Amino acid sequence: MENSSRHPGKRVVVTGATGNVGTSVVRALAAESDIGSVLGLARRKPALEITKVEWDTVDLSRADSEDRLADLLHGAYAVVHLAWRFQPTHDPVVTWRSNVLGSQRVFDAVARGGVPALVHASSVGAYSPGPKDEPGVDEQWPTHGWPDAAYCREKAYLERVLDTFELRHPQIRVARMRPGFLFKETAAPEQRRIFAGRYAPGPLLRPDLLPFVPDLDGLRFQVLHTGDAADAYRLAVLRDVRGPFNLAADPVIDARTLADLLDARIVRIPGALVRTALSAAWRAHAVPASPHLFDAVLRLPVMDSGRARDVLGWQPTRTAEDALSAFLRGVRTGAGENTAPLAGRKTG
Asked: Under DSSP, is residue 212 helix (H, G, I), strand (E, B) or coil?
């Protein structure tokens, strides 16, 4: 563990620092010369060593975590709030306690500690249903989410919480990051467990074993490499910016793009058929991915990332296809990192 006194400069605290986005964000911040130290917070301390990064634990679902947060945030230049719990999808009360109440505890601790800046991980999932055509919606599109999906409902609710927070604490600079789906190679084991289940055999996800891609109405979504998203978070910490920022890479992913990537053919399938099969598997606890999230994905709008480009000075360095290719490599090889969420595991 690094001693922060050895690295004078800005101190940044990152919640949810051991997951897909967190591991990339702490690395991006630690590589910045203006940042002296990074404190990564998670429910479980990782065995991951990164120069200028220290680790500590906090469980945001606990009612007493705010007092602990106040101590951990003391003297911080900025807080990057990434902590999020995706499961159990069958018990939304559990995720509400961690995600919504836990986020409110973070926001309150930021205000109590007088932290000058808060960078919050929102999502495309916070947006209300919208158009699938380019150039896409800007940050003024309504953020009411898709009400049936817990993930969207919680992200949208926190947008309202932050609206109030900003009115009450105008001296605190708040930036809201709204990325599309985020992928990188070492996060593939975590994402496979979240959406397909821990027993889904990654080595079977090969193009020759996926002969077709379903062509569904509304199957158009945006993807970004996690490393590029981390760079946007770095810029939001260091630059005097406020407000929401859409983050996505080109091209928009559709059935044709997926088919080209997987060397597969396209087959037109009714969405109702896919949803019925997914719903049955979810109710049987065969897969953790909720059919309500499937409904939301087919309704999410395409976003315009122009504000991030113009205000943050941000631009992705990898295409959406690059991000998906990295994910597929990680799924097949079981690549991971030395943290509890990203631990690589091979099954089958």
From this structure: strand
Run of H or E residues at 108: helix 102-113
Q: How far is CA 287 from CA 199, 207, 266, in A?
A: 9, 21, 24
CA pair distance 17, 201, nearest whole angstrom: 27
**Closest by CA position to 341, among listed 6, 9, 23, 1:** 23
Instruction: Measure the CA–CA gap between 23 and 11, rounded to whole angstroms.
Output: 17
Q: Are the beta carbons of 86 and 36 closer than 8 angstroms?
A: no
pTM for the model stands at 0.93
Q: In what order do the strands lie in the sheet with 220-225?
A: 181-183, 220-225, 249-254
Token readout for 291 is 């059919």
Enclosing H/E stretch for 247? strand 243-247
Lowest mean pLDDT among 119-123, 208-212, 234-238, 330-334: 208-212
